[in-house]
Write a structure and sequence with these properties.
Number of domains: 1
CATH class: Alpha Beta
Order of helices and strands: EHHEEEHEEEEHEHEEEH
Structural class: alpha/beta
Number of strands: 12
Radius of gyration: 18 Å
Shape: globular
CATH topology: Rossmann fold
């Protein structure tokens, strides 16, 4: 199942506009904040689909019964671009456990690369809800490798894959490679093209560089 948040008219699309805008995105603090806000909106939308637990709460004047989403959540992200978006989701899922994956593109030639997983930190995922995020879903390879690395720490009950902007090629790739997984895909928008260097067009550029500065 693929859910495209940007298809509905909401404040979400203002934040999408700002992270794409070549002038506004030059303000790295605002870019990070917009990624965080987007993460919060994704978390809210995902929360509507989660299993609930029944709670009785006592007020100063009585008691009331409330159904709330499960706390058995692990938030995972791919460093470094995923950090602001991850923080946005953590603002809402503040009792969630956390996992982090270090992944990078190792280039053989100017346009040819393999994705390498360098480091992973994760709690057990057994019978939990895994929410794995990365702002950009370009080829889909990084997301697939990150998920395969994570499930060495247990099998989640359900997985939510979250990206702000995806390419059609990336969506096709993850659909194929996650076909036997209990997974829901959440994206803000699906763009048509990838460049020869596998950047999404129109996309927004390099999310990690825009958030934290250019790397070597």
């Amino acid at each position: 199942m693929i859910k495209v948040i940007g298809e509905k008219n909401s404040i979400f699309n203002r934040f999408m506009l700002e992270i794409r805008d070549a002038k506004i995105q030059k303000d790295s603090m605002r870019f990070r904040k917009n990624l965080e806000r987007i993460g919060e909106i994704f978390a809210y939308e995902i929360s509507k689909t989660l299993p609930t637990v029944h709670k009785n709460v006592h007020t100063p004047l009585g008691s009331v019964e409330i159904d709330i989403p499960t706390d058995a959540i692990v938030l995972a992200t791919i460093l470094r671009a995923g950090l602001p978006m991850h923080q946005g989701m953590l603002n809402l899922f503040d009792k969630a456990e956390n996992a982090f994956i270090s992944a990078y593109r190792k280039y053989d030639t100017e346009n040819n690369f393999d994705v390498k997983i360098e480091y992973i930190s994760s709690p057990s995922l057994d019978n939990k809800i895994l929410i794995l995020s990365d702002p950009m879903l370009a080829t889909g390879i990084s997301m697939d490798l990150a998920y395969r690395a994570l499930i060495e720490n247990g099998r989640p009950e359900h997985t939510h894959i979250v990206s702000i902007i995806a390419s059609k090629e990336g969506i096709d790739y993850v659909r194929k490679h996650f076909s036997k997984t209990k997974v829901t895909f959440w994206v803000g928008a699906i763009d048509d093209e990838l460049t020869v260097k596998s950047y999404i067009v129109p996309g927004l550029g390099d999310a990690g560089d825009l958030a934290y500065g250019k790397k070597m």
